[in-house]
Amino acid sequence: MQPDDARNVRLAVMISGGGTTLQNLAEVIARGELNAEIVLVIASNPTCFGIERAQKLGLPIKIITRKESGTLELYSQRIAETLRTHHVDLALMAGFLSLWTIPAGYAGRVLNIHPALLPKFGGKGMHGHHVHEAVLAAGETESGCTVHFADNTYDTGPIILQKKVPVIKGDTPDTLAARVFDQEKLAYPEAIRIVIREMKRLH
């Protein structure tokens, strides 16, 4: 399932929350800035707002919850089978909060974006505002975002790229989050382009 030059790379976007990253990726693709198509959205939370965004974008949605799946193994199998059924080249975790076991066939083809400069402020429970609160509490002078290959633990795996922002005096978790998200909107498409180029080179 290596992408070839004759077709767009097939993306799955995996969400658990508001779907702002999904929206951004869809807009980047629509502007012709990313040679790919979103062929699937996987939601781990059946009530998340990201589902509504996906519907408005006309994207196919599959809801796969850990609770309904039972074991981690079955949950991971369901996700992997769904990716294979849709012939997905790259799976993009975009605020996807459910840990799953990446099958061998998708090693190096699952990306994640994290709203801090990993390895700082990563790990279980470190997502969304929890990250920005921790950055401010630690008195950091800079933060940013990291795009990395996902593996089977939280926020580890080889880093593809990072973008930095200053932490400004008087910042709140909201103001810092907004500044970081501005960079996330640039970082994820850039990282995907890097990975696609490498996949095509190896192919």
Structural features:
seven-stranded mixed sheet, 203 residues, Rossmann fold, alpha/beta
Task: Describe this entry's structure for a reader.
- This protein is of the alpha/beta class.
- The chain has 2 domains: 8-107, Rossmann fold (3-Layer(aba) Sandwich), CATH 3.40.50; 114-147 and 160-203, Rossmann fold.
- 37% of the residues lie in helices and 21% in strands.
- The chain has 6 helices and 7 strands, in the order βαβαβααββαββα.
- Strands 3-2-1-4-5-6-7 form a 7-stranded mixed β-sheet, with helices on both faces.
- Helix 1 links the parallel strand 1 and strand 2.
- The longest helix is centred in the last third of the chain and has 30 residues, at 173-202.
- The chain is globular.
- The mean pLDDT is 94.
Looking at CATH, which topology of the largest domain would you report? Rossmann fold
Relative helix content: 25-40%
Number of helices: 6
* Uncertain residue ranges: none
H/E element sequence: EHEHEHHEEHEEH
Mean pLDDT: 94
The amount of beta strand, in percent, is 15-25%
First CA to last CA: what distance? 10 Å
The assigned CATH architecture of the largest domain is: 3-Layer(aba) Sandwich
The number of domains: 2
How would you characterize the largest beta sheet?
7 strands, mixed
Q: How many β-strands, per DSSP?
A: 7
